[in-house]
Write a structure and sequence with these properties.
Largest sheet: 3 strands, mixed
Order of helices and strands: HEEEEEHHEHHEHE
Distance between the termini: 28 Å
Radius of gyration: 16 Å
């Protein structure tokens, strides 16, 4: 696996879920960096966690996905997960967050954990692609009983509710975005 803040966070959270008796699968891009270096290990186990790396490619930067990463296998991978999933979304809006929002109705419960700092969240919400993504997320939150978004801070939670108009009962302040006893 790549090494970095997000990767370390996902791995540590996954370990905690496994230690709590849950089955965990991490689905990730096969890219090791944005220059195109790829991981040749597609499936492996790590400390009781199943890791699956999906074929990924960089796309030209565009207004729908500022992170320009496309994972063609992701829709089928999400469909195969079954009903209950927690999706950790760091880069929002991005290809994987749009796929999760589009397929969100299939899952028993879905939790988005964007980990925005307040300045980046406001900037995203003011951009065309950000407004589109937040509108799509709002629609999912309003139409699905077990769909939630987490905020790392009370300030972030307040901005989601009062500036971006997310439903107040669907936004939870959870430091680091994970609660093993959580919403699901």
């Amino acid at each position: 696996m790549a090494i970095g803040g997000v990767e370390t966070n996902v791995l540590e959270v996954a370990k905690r879920f496994v230690n709590a008796g849950n089955k965990v699968e991490i689905i990730s891009s096969d890219l090791l960096n944005f220059e195109g270096l790829k991981d040749d290990k597609r499936r492996f186990d790590l400390d009781g966690i199943s890791v699956r790396k999906l074929y990924s490619l960089r796309s030209p930067r565009n207004f729908l996905d500022p992170h320009h990463l496309i994972i063609p296998e992701l829709p089928m991978a999400l469909i195969r997960l079954g009903k209950r999933t927690i999706l950790h979304v760091r880069s929002f809006p991005a290809f994987h967050s749009y796929m999760a929002m589009s397929l969100g109705h299939m899952f028993e419960c879905i939790v988005f954990t964007p980990h925005f700092d307040i300045k980046d969240m406001r900037g995203c919400a003011q951009s065309f692609s950000g407004r589109m993504a937040f509108n799509k997320l709002r629609k999912l939150l309003l139409t699905k009983e077990k769909a939630f978004i987490t905020a790392d801070t009370e300030l972030e939670k307040d901005a989601y509710i009062n500036e971006i108009n997310m439903p107040f009962n669907k936004v939870a302040h959870i430091p680091n975005g994970v609660n093993l006893g959580g919403q699901c």
